[in-house]
Write a structure and sequence with these properties.
With 90 residues, the chain is mainly α. The chain has a single domain, classed as 434 Repressor (Amino-terminal Domain), CATH 1.10.260.40. Helix content is 46%, strand content 7%. It has helices at 22-35, 40-47, 51-59, 66-75; strands at 9-11, 80-82.
Length: 90
């Protein structure tokens, strides 16, 4: 099994200091896209968005909405795992 085939699509809010870096998530999206043989434009069409929106996600310049995460998981035939952590009230 190659390295991409077994990877899950995981996302954690980038504003959390303990979460994944936005660029790590963007890099994963890019690796999955390239592995799938899709251009940014083709992935955008599958998601109902633009090539520039995909470029922003890959660069870590955009925070994806839940619907976008669901569409990404479906486009790459992956389960979506969201990690939610309560903030301290102090």
């Amino acid at each position: 099994m190659d390295q991409i085939a077994g990877r899950r699509l995981c996302w954690a809010c980038p504003s959390d200091a303990d979460s994944l870096e936005g660029t790590d998530f963007g890099q994963l999206i890019k690796e999955l896209r390239v592995h799938s043989g899709l251009s940014q434009r083709a992935l955008g069409e599958k998601l109902g968005t633009t090539q520039s929106a995909i470029a922003r996600l890959e660069a870590g310049d955009a925070v994806p909405k839940l619907g976008t995460l669901q569409k990404l998981a479906a486009a790459f035939d992956r389960d979506l795992h969201l990690y939610v952590k309560a903030q301290d009230s102090t």
